Structures are given as C-alpha cells and as structure tokens.
Amino acid sequence: MLKPINAEIDFEYKCEKCGGSNWITKQETISRKLKCYCGHINTVIPIKYVKITYNCFNNQKILNKQSVQKAINILRGVGYLKSTAETMVLKIAQTNSSLTTDKLVKQAIKEEVK
User: Fold this and answer.
1) Run of H or E including 13
2) Residue 60: half-sphere exposure toward Cβ, Cα within 13 Å
3) Entry pTM
4) Environment class of residue 48 by beta-carbon count within 10 Å: exposed (0-12), middle (13-18) or buried (19+)?
5) CA 70 to chain centre
6) Which tens digit of pLDDT belongs to each residue from 66-90?
7) How do residues 18-51 score in pLDDT, each as one tens digit?
8) Rounded CA gap, 13 and 40, in Å?
9) Any idea what the Cα angle at residue 17 is, between residues 13 and 23, rounded to 5°?
10) d(Cα 30, Cα 41) in Å, to the nearest integer?
C-alpha cells in the first residue's frame, strides 16, 4: 500500500464584497492579499501548515460505524491511546463488520494479547 509523498491543496475564500469564491494555494496565502474577480482586494490569513492524516483501512467498508466508535471509546477509557484503539478496532471491524460493540472490544483485546 502506497503512502502519499506530496499534495497540492487549494483553499477557498469568499470575497467580503461580492461573496464570490476564490481559490488560492498555501503559498499564495503568504502575500496576505487576494484580489477577487470583482476587483476587491481581500486580506487573508496565511496558512502555516497543513496536516494530512490517512487511514490504511479505508479501502474496505465498515457497516456498523456506531459500534466501532463506541468500541474505540471503551478501549480509550481503559487506558489505550486513541491511535492504538482505532487500529485495534478497525482491524477487527474489517474482517467482521457485524460484530456488536462488546464483541469488538473483546476481540480487539484478544487479538492484541496473541
């Protein structure tokens, strides 16, 4: 599975005068000025950085999202880090999307102990 090595992202700003949409890149925000198509010059807040996260399990459909979220919250409540709990539960949910919350938690802990 490939991880992204680069990204091109544009940001949408609405003109203060006409309400029109204007798209600019992160680099273009540095100038702090954005000239709209109507001619109005808007002041924009520069973008310092963009954080992109991805989930390697997104290629399969999870049917019971509510049970998955509850299972993650239960694991977090007993001391697991959010990222660890998500990885554990999503791995189980990928193989059996019909499990109830309690069964997801039990299976996730069982798999970790192996």
Assistant:
1) strand 10-14
2) 12
3) 0.46
4) exposed
5) 18
6) 888 888 899 988 888 888 888 888 8
7) 999 888 888 888 888 999 999 999 999 888 877 7
8) 13
9) 20
10) 15
